[in-house]
Design brief:
Length: about 60
Amino acid sequence: MKVSIIEEACIGCGACVALCDAVFRLNDDAGKAEVIPGVDCNEAGCCKEATDSCPTAAIVIEE
Ligand code: SF4
């Protein structure tokens, strides 16, 4: 399962990081979240929850 963030849609609220810091991190320079490279969304177990909690639907999970 692959996860990505639509950069233009992200407002940098940090909700995904708070819920799932194994997969997401904030890029302070950009003020937006990013997916940590090489992380498996399935193994982390919190990807879906974080995706559902994003206020701007900026996180996309590709099955
Ligand atoms: S929850 Fe959504 S809007 Fe907030 S930082 Fe994460 S991707 Fe960006």
